[in-house]
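Student: Send me a single protein entry containing the residue sequence and its fold in token form, directly below this note:

Tutor:
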Amino acid sequence: MARALYIHWPFCAKKCPYCDFNSHVRESVDVAAWRAALVADMQAEAQATGGETLTSIFFGGGTPSLMPPELVETLLEKAERLWGFAPDIEITLEANPSSIEAARFAALAQAGVNRVSIGVQSLDDDTLKWLGRLHGAKEALNALEVAQKAFERVSFDLIYALPGQTAYEWREQLSRALDFGTSHLSLYQLTIEPGTRFATDVRRGVFDPLGDDAAADLFALTQELTEHAGLPAYETSNHARPGEQSRHNLTYWRYQDYAGIGPGAHGRRGGFATMRHRKPENFLKAVGERGHGIAEQRVLVPAEQASEALLMGLRLVEGVELTDLEMRFGIAANKLINKSKPTHLQSIGLMWREGDRIGLTRAGRPVLDAVLGELVADDLVQA
């Protein structure tokens, strides 16, 4: 049964050139219509996933900080009535650091949000402009200050491994970021995603991505600085003080059940995979006609679930316990991974193994996809 709830708000003020998330720019948003649709979608999902209190809720997007605080409060009240809340529930909302959105932080906290994740992305004005962000560095710093007063827990994002970025530049910026004293940081290397404007720019020769060796050096520097500051990595791109990890995201990475509502939201619950309609207008139409926004729901066979659990779990520094996956999915531990690969991956320093628990080393985490292609059993991948 679902222990976590994801709520997707699909609207943004502007589409960033690196973003491949399900985000849309609209001249106006009918808040009343969206309130009714999200409540109905939530109610339909609760009928399938009820029975266990929620330990976390995550408002993602899009730009959820554009939501009226009254709408956030309505959705939280509805979720509590439908599922019930654990006493220490984590309620996270993604936010942009514009002054308009920061002005809503106190009201969002009053509505029930107790953790905020702010998309700062850079502390340099020129970089922010290149990334297509609507805020400047000073505005971002002001938003962080407001957030730290309003919320119990604050995280923020930075993007690095930018074209031409040097180790000195990244060290200076990350050191400044760590000085803010937040308990969590998400530090992402720039990835050129298909279908984005940056992908078009690279194809046209407008800029070249940073080389793999230089990016690997910056990744190593990131691990060094965050560990020294007491925020070691617990996942490939996420760093936190002990006990301050994102509980909601750990639900994904530990492959526990979660419900997803709103346009394009995914869910995993009771052996089923769900996906909502991506386009906002299609989502509204579906909810109006059927009472929910599901576009696709399918059964996940045990081999597929085990494969997904491996792919997600190996992102974590803690790794995965093969005997746990064997018990959950009924597949022998020695059938989950290619038998000949662990010894080789260990010998070249990309993987560790302690009994039946396996994980990737610091050197292995930057090349996660390549390692997974070698490690996960072929039969699982083909399932």
Q: What stands out?
A: The chain has a mean pLDDT of 94. DSSP finds 16 helices and 15 strands in the chain. The first helix runs from residue 31 to 49. The CA atoms of residues 97 and 141 lie 8 Å apart.
